[in-house]
Amino acid sequence: MTTYGIDLGTTYSCVASVDDTGRAAIAKNAVGNDTTPSVVYFESARNVVVGEEAKNTALLYPDLVVSLVKRQMGASADYEFHGRRHTPESVSALILRELARAAGEHDRSTVEDVVITVPAYFGIHEKEATRRAGQIAGLNVLDIVPEPVAAALHYQSLDSSAGVRHLLVYDLGGGTFDTTVIRVEDNDVRVVCTDGDHRLGGADWDEKLADLMLERFTDLHPSPDPSADEQFLQDVAAAAEQVKRSLSIREHARHNLRFGGEAVRVELTRGDFEALTSDLLERTLTITERTVAMARERGVDSFDDVLLVGGMTRMPAVSRSLRERFGFDPHLHEPDLAVAKGAALFAMVRQVKNVMDVSGPTDRARRAEEVGAALGITRAQVEQLAAKTVTSVSPRAFGVKATDSTDPLFATDPGRARQYISHLIEANTPLPVTVEDGFATVWPDQEQVEIDVWEQAGSVASEELEHNVRIGDALLTGLPKGPAGTPFRIEFRLGETGLLRVRGWDPGSGKEIRFDVQIGGMSHDDVREAREAVAMIRTSG
């Protein structure tokens, strides 16, 4: 009955489970490391390598290696290797398969039931793509949990303080960034607010550093053109990551670059690196300012702890900037492992709840005994896990496309009038939530209305179409003929799992349409076919 938490990271991934002492423990990978590079090398049509070896192979065969695939989750992107097409979901599934295989070997068990983490700021498309990746990998995905929530659960498991505590989680990983304020008390973990940028992370620091190192080499040896050689660019990228890590613990770093029979020693100071990437760090601080302001609006004026999560938070500039800008006293909270460990705890909570919720009141005690025996924990611990609640918020706003009745064109030609997004659910609304609002037809005798559902795409909610992304639609038909401006209503119901249910209806006639927002990209048949295809591929680490 062991359940696993998987931190499916942009650059590194990690797996954990809860051991027989009730503590979350890391399942080491095939080479004995806690974390695995989220890199896939397509050696052949039937064999892929995942992890450190794949990352090293990128230096030799860059065209056969995929990295940073997490940034493509939810997008319409394709890869082709050895005559076979792969989606971001299927590539991520290969990573998950290898993580599960290695964890199973380490724990001498079979990894089936899992919780997978995602950045707090992931939208519906990205979350659903992550869930599909788990399904394609042949896993039973119990839930998708935001990374800072997982980190807070791990923090709570180690902290014996009583009463209410407010945490600010600053999570800067390899490819994503978010800040989240979380309220913890006994069995309750509640997200207050969150903000972030899922395309900002350590890879951007690496890219700036690689560009600088390439520039210094090219200044001295411009011919033959080093930037035209893919293998040399991979060498520079690997060197940039190594130098970045060195500058997190030392004031100076150097690296020898070689190309075309020439060699250049590139020397950098921590100050050089911080100046080079100051704009990236400033972006994280701006997001943090927005999060702190939102928390203040919701009655949270101070934080009992500021947790630094994600490998990039080891950079001294992060802690220093948070102290200088906000007066925080942040501390590193197992930056590479906390999310996976918290996900393992959440997986156990979810599994216990699933089992206990199907038990009637008369056999609940007996069921708790059975669950405890299966998990190796006491009945009291089972009851405590079953009582734990985790409440999140909607990281983004959701709305419908509407026509601006104040546009002068509306009176003569409403089809050409300005269109905008009317948000029914605002960002940082606690889940679950149900919201309804009134709208009106724009044409005389209009008998149907297209309900276009959109999700906030930018970092700040905006009613402009270009700052939102369309995620679903349906047609409300059979409306009685009437003048332009005939009212109808739309209801959004957003659940804790991220499922958005939409209802549109005409109060007069009772005509209505109900639909769940179906995320494009892969149908159930596509997922099944991808699962069968991935099952035919051998993974190794």
From TrEMBL:
Family the entry assigns: Belongs to the heat shock protein 70 family.
Protein name: Molecular chaperone DnaK (HSP70)
GO molecular function per UniProt: ATP binding; ATP-dependent protein folding chaperone
InterPro entries: ATPase_NBD, Heat_shock_70_CS, HSP70_peptide-bd_sf, Hsp_70_fam
Keyword annotations: ATP-binding, Chaperone, Nucleotide-binding, Phosphoprotein, Stress response
Species of the source: Nocardiopsis algeriensis
Superkingdom: Bacteria
Pfam family, one: HSP70
